[in-house]
Amino acid sequence: KEKLTAPELRRQKGGTPLVWLTAYDFPGAQLAEEADVDVILVGDSVGTTVLGYPSTIPVTMDDMVYHAKMVRRGAPHTMMIVDLPFLSYVTPEIALQNAGRLMQEALADGVKLEGGRSILPVIDALVQHEIPVVGHLGLTPQSIHRMGGYRVQARTADAIEALVDDAQVLADHGIIALVLEGIPDRVAQYVTESIPVPTIGIGAGHQTDGQVLVFHDCLGLSSSYPKFAKPFAHVRQAMLEGITQYRREVTERQFPDETHSYHVPDKEWQEFWH
Ligand code: KIV
Ligand code: NA
C-alpha cells in the first residue's frame, strides 16, 4: 500500500471524501491502516481519550512523541499527522524545535496546530522549513478557557467572517489541509468552496472534503459522546462483557479448562511422584 503524499492530499480536494481517524497506540494504528483510512491523526485528544485528563491542556510534547512513535510502528504505510500540543508553538523557534521532534523522532508526515492569523509567523517558519502543516479552526480545544467550554463556533456574522478570513490566510500560507471543528454546516461548506486546500470536518457537516473522527468515538469506546460523534461499533460494551465473563468463569473455576492448560504425560508424572 502506498502512503498518501501531501501533493496527493491536495489533489483530492473536491473528490471522494478523505477519511481521517485518530490513533494513539500500536493496535489502534494497525486497525486504522488495515481499514485503509487515508490519514491517521495522532491528536492531542490523547489527553482526554487515553491519559484521563479533563482537557487537552495538560498534554506535553513528550506525550505526543511517545504516542506518535507507537502509532508509526503500527501504521508504517499511512500518512501520519501529529498535533502540536498546548504552548508547544508559542514562537517560530519553539515550534520548529517541537515539530522537528515529531518529524525526526516519531517519523511524522506533518504536524497540525490550532489557530489562524495570530499564528502566521509559526506557520511560515514550519512551511519554509519543509514541514507539512495542517491547520485547525472553529472549535479549537486548546482555547477552552477563552471559549468558556466546548461551544460551537462561527455562529454570528462577525465570527463567520473571521473564520473565513483565517481559512483564506492559512491556505495562502501553504497549509496542506484544514481541520474545521464544531462549526455550522453552511459555514464549513462556504469555507470548503473558498479555499484550494482540502477541508476535513468534525462536527462541521457533510460538505467538507473529508471527515476526521476520534478513534474512541468511532468505535463506541468512549463513555460519553458529543452530538456530532456517531459510534460505528460498540466496543466498550463488548470489552465490559468480556471482562465480566472472565471474572465469572474464574470465580466458578470454569476457566482455565483442559484446553487452556498444559499437561505432562502420565509416565513422567509417575516417575516424579514415586
Ligand atoms: O486531537 C484531535 O483528535 C483533533 C481532532 C478532533 C481534529 O484535533
Ligand atoms: Na487536537
UniProtKB/TrEMBL annotation:
<feature type="binding site">
    <location>
        <position position="83"/>
    </location>
    <ligand>
        <name>3-methyl-2-oxobutanoate</name>
    </ligand>
</feature>
<dbReference type="InterPro" id="IPR040442">
    <property type="entry name" value="Pyrv_kinase-like_dom_sf"/>
</dbReference>
<feature type="binding site">
    <location>
        <position position="44"/>
    </location>
    <ligand>
        <name>Mg(2+)</name>
    </ligand>
</feature>
<feature type="active site" description="Proton acceptor">
    <location>
        <position position="181"/>
    </location>
</feature>
<dbReference type="InterPro" id="IPR015813">
    <property type="entry name" value="Pyrv/PenolPyrv_kinase-like_dom"/>
</dbReference>
<dbReference type="InterPro" id="IPR003700">
    <property type="entry name" value="Pantoate_hydroxy_MeTrfase"/>
</dbReference>
<feature type="binding site">
    <location>
        <position position="112"/>
    </location>
    <ligand>
        <name>3-methyl-2-oxobutanoate</name>
    </ligand>
</feature>
<comment type="similarity">
    <text>Belongs to the PanB family.</text>
</comment>
<comment type="pathway">
    <text>Cofactor biosynthesis; (R)-pantothenate biosynthesis; (R)-pantoate from 3-methyl-2-oxobutanoate: step 1/2.</text>
</comment>
<keyword id="KW-0479">Metal-binding</keyword>
<keyword id="KW-0808">Transferase</keyword>
<feature type="binding site">
    <location>
        <position position="83"/>
    </location>
    <ligand>
        <name>Mg(2+)</name>
    </ligand>
</feature>
<dbReference type="GO" id="GO:0000287">
    <property type="term" value="F:magnesium ion binding"/>
</dbReference>
<dbReference type="Pfam" id="PF02548">
    <property type="entry name" value="Pantoate_transf"/>
</dbReference>
<feature type="binding site">
    <location>
        <position position="114"/>
    </location>
    <ligand>
        <name>Mg(2+)</name>
    </ligand>
</feature>
<feature type="binding site">
    <location>
        <begin position="44"/>
        <end position="45"/>
    </location>
    <ligand>
        <name>3-methyl-2-oxobutanoate</name>
    </ligand>
</feature>
<dbReference type="GO" id="GO:0005737">
    <property type="term" value="C:cytoplasm"/>
</dbReference>
<protein>
    <recommendedName>
        <fullName>3-methyl-2-oxobutanoate hydroxymethyltransferase</fullName>
        <ecNumber>2.1.2.11</ecNumber>
    </recommendedName>
</protein>
<keyword id="KW-0460">Magnesium</keyword>
<comment type="subunit">
    <text>Homodecamer; pentamer of dimers.</text>
</comment>
<comment type="function">
    <text>Catalyzes the reversible reaction in which hydroxymethyl group from 5,10-methylenetetrahydrofolate is transferred onto alpha-ketoisovalerate to form ketopantoate.</text>
</comment>
<dbReference type="GO" id="GO:0015940">
    <property type="term" value="P:pantothenate biosynthetic process"/>
</dbReference>
<dbReference type="GO" id="GO:0003864">
    <property type="term" value="F:3-methyl-2-oxobutanoate hydroxymethyltransferase activity"/>
</dbReference>
<keyword id="KW-0566">Pantothenate biosynthesis</keyword>
<keyword id="KW-0963">Cytoplasm</keyword>
